[in-house]
Design goal:
Helices cover 42% and strands 24% of the residues. The protein is α+β, with helices and mostly antiparallel strands. The chain has a three-stranded mixed beta sheet, covered by helices on one side. α2 links the parallel β2 and β3.
Length: 88
């Protein structure tokens, strides 16, 4: 699967998950797919939820990796300690 196909599949998975997050007062935004890492931004109730790590790793990351096994990790930019360059 090409990188473009992987990214398209990732976005499709997020589109399936989004209604569940919205139902709980949250949301998710796809930001970028680079070096086998998916960058997302969790918003709404998800941004301040105590279960954010569980939602991200055991929910979102697991669902994406099931469809795109090449994905190593999913990172929420709001909670990431790594700097992120938005100036592409």
């Amino acid at each position: 699967m090409s990188r473009e196909e992987q990214e398209k599949k990732i976005i499709e998975v997020l589109d399936v998950l989004r209604p569940f997050l919205i139902n709980d007062g949250g949301n998710i935004e796809f930001v970028k797919y680079e070096d086998q890492i998916v960058y997302v931004r969790l918003g709404g109730a998800c941004a301040n939820c105590g279960m954010i790590d569980f939602t991200l790793k055991d929910g979102i990351e697991a669902a994406i990796q099931e469809e795109v096994p090449e994905v190593k990790e999913v990172i929420n930019l709001e909670s990431s300690s790594e700097p992120f360059d938005f100036g592409e």
